Each structure stands twice: as structure tokens, then as C-alpha cells.
Fold DNA replication and repair protein RecF.
Amino acid sequence: MTESRPEAKVRVSHLRLSDFRNHADLALDFAGRSVVLIGQNGVGKTNVLEALSLLAPGRGFRRATLAEMARLGGSGGFSVLAGVEGAFGAVRIGTGAVPGEPGRRILVDGEPQKASERLSDHLRLIWLVPAMDGLFTGAAADRRRFLDRLVLAVDPAHGRRVSAYEQAVASRNRLLEGREADVVWLDALETEIAATGVAVAAARRETVHCLARLIETRPDGDGAFPRAAVQLTGEVDTALDGAAAADVEDWLRADLRAGRSRDRAAGRTLVGPHRSDLSVRHAEKDMPASASSTGEQKALLTGLVLAQAALVTELTGNPPVLLLDEVAAHLDARRRRALVDLIAALGVQAFMTGTDIAPFEGFSNEAEIIAIPDVAAPDSGEF
Ligand SMILES: Nc1ncnc2c1ncn2[C@@H]1O[C@H](COP(=O)(O)OP(=O)(O)OP(=O)(O)O)[C@@H](O)[C@H]1O
């Protein structure tokens, strides 16, 4: 008989959803191991994972508005409360929306918090959801977001860095739309763009370096998940390879100033880390990830997400919690086994979903199976 795996060092022990999506009131207790949520299509399994994803800075993995997440026919608000056990003991963290209030509320042990960054003091999240299946073939913006989420899990200040940068770029774009832009204001914005832009690029670069090194040295589930070779591409990223950050900042500021009429004609800023991309290659086959088969892409992506989890543990000293929506559906039996083994070896708690228990049979030591009831269905025999 296999022994039970030790509990993850950081884990969600309880979750309560009120008026969140289709869940009017759902309370779940977790024993400490990984969790598989089972239920028919549409019962709200992904909604539970989405609720968990709001326990990190940002808008959750669906990037939905607060109004979209509030239960139709409910009060117009919602709440998500979780018990988390971690390095500093047990804490209750939560978030929610109140009708008429802009933005979401953040609570830590009942105390309102000014910044969602405070959630990261207790919980770091990494997720893999079906919407990411086209990550390698899709838009560069999605790969940047994928990378920024990892940087954020390692360094919670990254969120502020990225939004300061994006706001400055948006302000410059608006200013350039006018025929006679205020030059003093443009100078100030370009200084801000250069400073925050190089900070964003440097943080991404550092994380990608660490990730690439970790992928080269870690076990990969006996080859179940092909190794990915990751690299940042973009003018600012290349510049940082050969020069000090201060010099790249000077260069970027000068380029922005010289490129005003170019950018005015284009209607947007054409240089900066918002133009970078994360190049991912299938290392063993030495070909772009985008040229791999659908199954290979899923395996590469899964391996990349597991490497991200290992990196967060290595760099922060605490394992993240993984949210893996419908992950088993795309993996063959060997890869499913390797996935569960790697999750256990990493010492992370993972939340997975499935419509059917079959892919998870044999994992009872590693994962707790929880059925999500179909709240819309009438009780049997009550007709
Ligand atoms: N704001 C909302 N209010 C009420 N119900 C909602 C809201 N948003 C989504 N839903 C409902 O949530 C359900 C979808 O939930 P979810 O995506 O979690 O399903 P699932 O269990 O993961 O299903 P599948 O196995 O098909 O992926 C749908 O029935 C949808 O109508």
C-alpha cells in the first residue's frame, strides 16, 4: 500500500462562496491534499477555481468584471472567503464585490486591505486553464500575461510596476493623438515609461533566466512532459542582454523622444516591453512550441506550469497552489500519472476539475475527490 503524501506547506483548507456565479452559498472543506472537483457539465467546477483565482492580485483567470461574477438574480455583490494554512499559521483571506462600490474588497482575517497585493502574503497561485491551450500559437499579449503572472507570483510588486508602465504608455498615446502635444508632459511621460519599462523588462528577464535554468536541471516526470526552452524576445530584452539597466533606460527614453512622429502616425507607442514576447521551444526536438502537435503543446504547457510552481517554491520558500482546470482530459494515462506524481513531489496543493472520476482513479492517496452538486437539478424522488 502506498503511504499518504505529506500535506503541502501552503494549502487552502476551506472555501466559502456567496452569490458567486451559479453558487448562492457553497462551503467546501479540504483535507489538505490536492483536490479533484467532479461534477457534470455546468455545475460550477470552473467557477470554484475562478473564485480561488481571485485570491491573487488581478482579475482572476477569466478576467471577468465584478458584475459578471455576481450571481444572476442575487444581491448584485458576491464574496469568496478562504481559510489558508501556511508558513505563518492559519489565516482567513477573502475578496468580494459590494453593489455600488468600485473595485473589489480584500480582507485578511476580517481586516479590509487597501491593496490586493496583500493576498500574496498568504497565497501564491499558478493556473492552467483550457483558455491557455492556444498559448504558443496565439497572441504575444497572452504569453506576456502568462509570464507576468509568474513574475507576480515570485514578486508581488510586479503588478504595480506593470500597471504604472501601461498607464504611462496609454497617457503618451492619448497625448500624441492631439496635434500639438505638450512637450514638457511628453518628456515626463517618456521618462516614466523608460524607468518603469526597464524595471518590467528586467524583472521578466530575471524570472525567465531562473525558469530556464530550473527546467534544465529538474526531473521532468521521466520525460512525460517535454522540456521547454524559454527566452524573451523584444528590443528592450535584447538591449538588456548587452548593457546595464541605466543605459537601456537612457536608450529607451531617447528612442521614444526621437520616435514621436513615428508613433503618432502609428497611433500607438512602437517600442517598449509591451512589444516583447516569450519564445517557447520544444527543447528535445529543437523546434518552436507552436509547431508541435496539440497534445505535445498541452504537455509542454503542463511541464512549463509545473516548472513555474517549482520556481515559486524555490524563490519564495513557499509552494504556490495550483489551479488546473480540465487538465486530465487532455493528457494520456502516463502523463496523468506523471502529473499527479510531480504535484506530490513538488509539495504543492493542486485543485483539478473533471466531469468523470475515471481519469483520477488510483490517485486516492494523492488527491481528495469532491463532488460538486448540481444545484439546478431537482432532488431525486421529489418529483
Ligand atoms: N453570474 C452568474 N450567475 C449565475 N450563474 C452563472 C453566472 N455565470 C455563470 N453561471 C453559470 O455557471 C455555469 C458554468 O459553470 P462552470 O463554467 O464552472 O461549469 P463547469 O462545472 O466547469 O462545467 P464544464 O464541465 O462544462 O466545464 C453555467 O451553468 C452558467 O450558466
About this structure: The two ends are 44 Å apart (CA to CA). The pocket of adenosine-5'-triphosphate is lined by residues 21-22, 39, 41-47, 70-72, 353, 355 (CB under 6 Å). Residues 1-124+318-383 form a domain with the Rossmann fold fold (CATH 3.40.50.300).
